[in-house]
Amino acid sequence: MTVFWLLVGAPGFEPGTSCSQSKRASRTALRPDEMNAASIMRRMNTRQAILYISCLLFLSVLSACQPLDNTVNAQAVPSPTVTATATVTPTPVPATPTPLTCLTEPGLLKQDVVQTTKPPQEFIIYLPPCYETFTDRRYPVLYLLHGQTYTEDQWVRLGAPAAADQLIHSDKSPPFIMVFPDDRYWNTEAGPGFGDRFINNLIPYVDGNYRTLADREHRALGGLSRGGGWTVKLGFDHPELFGALGLHSPATFKEDAPYVDMIIRSIPQENRPKLWLDVGDSDMELGRVSQLEGILVNNDYLHEFHRFTGDHSEVYWNAHLWTYMRWYAQVWQEDVVEQ
User: Fold this and answer.
1) Is the whole model's pTM more than 0.85, yes or no?
2) 41 touches 52 (CB < 8 A)
3) In whole angstroms, what is the distance from residue 213 CA to residue 107 CA?
């Protein structure tokens, strides 16, 4: 309204009038206390009113056209803090170890000889799977003696190495060494006999040249027919050397028969080797084997005795070979469990 008054009501901005009009205007001029919108409207003529209203409309339009202050006084939004993402290093998955080929391969058979004896003591030796790989490992030893008229390969032909492989591969036995000595000179006079060569030369040679566990708990002796007879003599004479004895259809020596009872009595109970004894019900040695078994019973010697169907032949021994090998292996398997 102040603007309107300045433009319309102020002197010098009125429309031109005659002298009489000027006098009337001066007579009718409003005092300051009378200058309000209502009084102004009553005292205006038509032209002044039109101009007054036009100015009002102009000012309204002008106000509406003013740009709005679109400035938003928004609160400052903090920039997100960028947190460094830790780099996760994946735990390496260990590579699956490649199984050793030797664990599924058969053991090794070697021919060897003790040259210092007369005659030279020949033998075949069975080294278990991975023997050449695990060079810091030592093994139990099983000595197996052949029968009369046969040679050191008899137990090999009957399948002892193959049976040992199966036991070892199936974890039914710890790996072990087998030695098959030759006793082809049983009927000749050729210096010290087989027994002396075996005890004094062969065993020390094997312990010195192969990785054996050289104590009685890890050394066993077994034999069939004449080899069983040697096992009776050597095993009972040297119980400090053998932890287990296997007598398979043993043909005991006639000259030793009267002394077997005395030999067994001389062995302290705690030093007696574990003992296996078997014979066929049609074996020609059945009488002597039964007599030996009676001596064991009379002396309270703990042992296993089996009377199977069969005779004194390789057919019989081959049929029970697996049973023999499991018994020998069980001795060392029990030892592993106890440790």
Assistant:
1) no
2) yes
3) 18
